[in-house]
Design goal:
151 residues, alpha+beta, Aminopeptidase, five-stranded mixed sheet, 4 helices
Length: 151
């Protein structure tokens, strides 16, 4: 990891860099066509408080990683932070940026009085599974995802 990497709250002018990383993640996850949200969608919904984000920036203030999240409710646990996306630039993985981002996100969840943090992982994504296991994360296999896509 470059010692000059910094993690901070995202700003409106970060949305383009965040969307670029989301597209990179979609390519990695073998679904590049699935990203249909546009930069105006990101900007509008960020300003409306629908989601928040942390960004990792390098010494040139270039975004090299992000966590996109929102607070929601768990009927069993109470206030929960949901991690929607977590991505570090493909060429910079394995250098500690993900650790910085994830630990900053855990601190953010605690500061927001969340009792739990939750996310999804593709079952074939061994690097991600191994990363989360370092934090003693519970990797569930009994719950199935459900969704309806409104076009």
């Amino acid at each position: 990891m470059n010692s000059l990497t910094n993690v901070r709250k995202a700003r409106l002018d970060d949305m383009s860099g965040i969307l670029d990383l989301v597209k990179q993640l979609a390519l990695y996850e073998r679904a590049p066509e699935a990203v249909t949200a546009t930069l105006p969608d990101y900007e509008k919904n960020y300003l409306a408080g629908v989601f928040d984000a942390l960004v990792a920036v390098d010494e040139n203030n270039q975004i090299i990683g992000t966590t996109i999240y929102y607070v929601c409710w768990s009927t069993w646990r109470g206030r929960m932070l949901y991690l929607e996306d977590f991505v570090v630039d493909d060429s910079l993985r394995g250098r500690g940026t993900g650790k910085l981002l994830f630990e900053a996100l855990m601190q953010e969840a605690i500061s927001l009085d969340c009792r739990m943090m939750k996310w999804q992982i593709l079952n074939w994504n061994s690097p991600a599974l191994n990363f989360y296991r370092k934090y003693q994360a519970v990797i569930e296999n009994e719950w199935l995802n459900g969704k309806i896509i409104f076009e």
